[in-house]
Design brief:
The complex is a heterodimer of chains A (about 250) and B (about 550). Chain A is built from eight helices and seven strands. Chain A is an alpha+beta fold. With about 550 residues, chain B is α+β, with helices and mostly antiparallel strands. Chain B has four domains: about 110 residues, Immunoglobulin-like (Sandwich), CATH 2.60.40; about 110 residues, Immunoglobulin-like (Sandwich), CATH 2.60.40.10; about 110 residues, Immunoglobulin-like; about 110 residues. In chain B, strands 19, 20, 21, 22, 23, 25 and 26 form a seven-stranded mixed sheet that branches. In chain B, strands 10, 12, 14, 15 and 16 form a five-stranded antiparallel sheet that branches. In chain B, strands 1-3-5-4 form a four-stranded antiparallel sheet, with no helix packed on it. Chain B is elongated. The chains are: A alpha+beta (about 250), B alpha+beta (about 550). The interface between A and B is large, with 76 and 64 residues.
Amino acid sequence: MSRLLSLLTLWVLGATAPLLAGVGEAAYERGDFVGALQTWRAQAEADGVTAELLSAIGNAEWKLGHKGRAMVCWERALLLSPRDPVALAGIKHALGAGGTDRPTQTWSENYAAFLGADLWLILGALGFWGTLLAVLVPKLRRQPMGDWTQRILITSATLFALSIPGLYGAYTLASRAVVRRTDVPVKLTPTVLGEALNGTAEGDVLRTGRKLNGHTYVTSADGKGGWMKSTELEPIWGGALPVNLDQPRAP
Amino acid sequence: MRACFAILFCFVATSLVRAESHVTWEITPPVCGPGQPFRLQVRIESDDVLGPANQVGKEIKPPRGMALRFSGQVFRANATEATLNFSGVAPEEEGNYVLPAFNARFPSQMVLVPAITLIVSSKTGYRKEGRARAELVLPDRTFFVGEKIAGGVVMRGSEQETVTGTFGLECEAEGFNFQTEGSSFTQPLQDGHGLTKTFELTPIRAGQGEFNLSGIMLVNTGDRISSLNISGRDRPFNFRRKLTVEHVPETGRPADWGGSIGKLEITPPDLSNRFPEVGEPIKLKLTLVGEGNLERIIAPEIPGTDTWDIALASELRQRRSEGRRTFIYTLVPRLPGDLKTPAVRFQTFNPDNKKFEAVEFVSVAVKVSGNAPAKVELVTIDPSAKVGTPAAKMITGLLTPTVAAGVKGVAKIEPLAASQPFWLSNTGALVVLLLATAVISVVGYFAAHPEFLIRRQARGNLRRARAAAQDAYRRQDYAAYARAMTQGLRTGAAPLLKAEPLALTQSDILRALPTASPTLIEAIFLAAAGEKYGAKDPRQTIAEDAQLQAMLNTLEAQL
């Protein structure tokens, strides 16, 4: 009996899976962005997030006017797939029509975005170990370097040297966050009543620095620095779906 | 004769023309409170030179209860205009008071100043007496996340206490963004006794929050300290109010709502060219004005049509205080003829009636000249795309997302650089490699230089032999003392001579210790091994213990 039930469950799941796959897109197409968002969120919670899913959620959030959440989704989609067309179009649209700001990427960040942070780290680690072993092993064996050892040494050292700007670019790319609240001021000091220097809008991407007293040092797209409450920002790395800031945190 | 009549007519006509005078007046403030001082200014413009006015004060008959006196004339020689200034105090009763018409007499002419009406109302907020006080002006309703709330602090003074300035305005409100626009936004009240300081408040999260605003106003109490100095004091004020904030409701929210909250108004759309050719880009400038969070509005996407390619080109950035927002679209006509630009609709949420409302920029008629391309791709959105090639991508706007089914994703996007096992394994491997390298290097070094270990071992043996000798000395065991001392000398000398300790004789010891006493060395060797040869009593060697210890020390120092 239990086997029969499990077979029936599998059949039902198999039959409904393709339907669920198009539900979000259909809702999005007919303008039901809340429905699309709910479908995609459920999918993300069940199967985890992919670049496509995050881009789609970003679009729906943007359509609902949640600029901060949309930018977080698109930026995270680009972390998973640096050339995701939907996320790139979304960010371009947000910068042009939406009035959000995003720091211009440096050459090292553009270089890092070519492969992604993880791949750069793996290449860097391979280069490092290859170079180290190619130097140490002949010394420990008290033998001169052979032809193959020299080839490995040159290849590894080149790989390691090429990965350094990629690693640096990935590090600076990771040190960014999205403003999640509306009109959050950038303050002169990391205090509650700190003097407001200039304002930021929801969805602006800022470079982040050190943290102090519940505040984070941020640098805006036009290079102005100041302190902002850490709770008003959401880092690009280290999450999946955007955090719900309206939900009170557990004590 | 006709010419003579014409000249005469001109002369008579010019002499009969009367100089025209134009009279305007202004009362400051326009509406006075009961008993409030006011200023009346009468301006007269004439065709003739006016000069100084005579006996103006005597002509005026102010109504009952009103005090009014002529305070002077702004006088310029040979000027055709005159400004008469009057100071007055409004009556204590409310109502409209008419100052009857009067004559202003100038040397060249007399000008009739018409009747002037002064409105006295108690709603002006003017106070003759009383302390200066601050009032918070903030709408009493539910607010919405993201809206721009215009508020202000009205600092009302009186005749006795005038508010002359304010500073230190601070807001402590969790969940709100507070912004003032600088000191230029401190405006004087109409009665001249107070000030208004405006601010903008933007809720950033839903829920109930407490709004706490404090500041200090500078109050002039009017007491004279000296002829040049009037006393004043700082008077703080504080307001505390509970505010309720909600999200803009999702039910009934139009799909094209772009985050606007407030009351929008449109201005006529501005088109850069109404007679373009096919393919010639023209700019459509749409400007929104009104109250609300204009800077937060997302520009609506206008899809391309069969007749237009449309792209949101740019937007004019305006300061927050300007109260306007301009979007500029680029329109490219695809076909010739009489076309109309698409109507653009902006949705806004009205926080007062809690309903969504729409404003629409109407279509503008455009006459497009030129010829249609041989083949027109219907609804290509990229205006730069060549005719006949399908549009590869949109030049603006969001792409339609596609989500593949059944693809497993990640629960959390974290870089490999944040992975603890990655760094631990790499660090561990590096440490092991470095340790192995260090161990192998050390072992190899000692293998290449065995004398270090031999000497170290010899030092240890020498110290043990010395300890054994001292022990034998305490026990007065002369034979054991001599054996231990001999062993110590051999052990210490062996590494220096690169020989085995047991193979060394007295002469070998002397090679290692050239300054030592040969007699003593011979004696100690005899005492150690002389028993079997019937040697002398070894007691006398013990008496030379100090010299023998010095020999051992010399050997230890050389090792």
